[in-house]
Amino acid sequence: MKPLSDERELLKGLANSDKKAVETIYLENFNTVQALIINNNGSTDDAKDIFQEAIIVLYEKVRSGSFELHCRIKTFLYSVSRRLWLKRLQQQNRYSAPGDSLEQVVTVEEYQEAHEQRNAEFEMMEQAINHLGEPCKSLLEAYYLQKQNMQVIAASFGYTNADNAKNQKYKCLMRLKKIFFAQYKNGNDDE
């Protein structure tokens, strides 16, 4: 998961029209929007148009100065793109025979529900990781996010060998799993 501070830096860069920030936002998010559009009767050109409109919406909000993003950039852009695409589909449907693409709209909504569920699970996982504590949090990040091998992790964390580091990683994963599923269970009980 991308640290929030990195995302804030990207938003600052976007607000200042920093080319590198814009490129990074594009590279990290376009494929998700493209998959949404193509899976819902659109083309790559449609995806480019919709994504560009979503970037403009984000840019204008960030430039306003009072905008606070309470989710990941990816979630925001996906949500805006989804709304824009649904609107475009509905406009196209006005001029087609009734019922021609009603199933496509339902498919987009079902896809969005699944996406929102996945986002909620990612947020719960991030909370679980934050509750995990050290050294587990750093060890798991070193292995899964930074793609370090066990020898490097053993040396960094002071374990006698890679097998000990691997055992500790396993214990940390089990602890994370326990925290996550406790939160997941409590989150689903509220509904």
Describe this structure in words.
With 191 residues, the protein is mainly α. The chain folds into 2 domains: 1-127, Rna Polymerase Sigma Factor, Chain: A; 133-191. The protein is 80% helix and 0% strand. The protein has helices at 4-15, 19-38, 44-64, 73-94, 102-132, 136-145, 150-157, 162-189. Helix 2 (19-38) crosses helix 4. The longest helix is centred in the middle third of the chain and has 31 residues, at 102-132. The chain is elongated and about 60 Å long. It starts with a helix and ends with a helix. Mean pLDDT is 79; it is low at 94-106.
Salient structural properties:
elongated; mainly alpha; 2 domains; Rna Polymerase Sigma Factor, Chain: A; 8 helices; about 190 residues
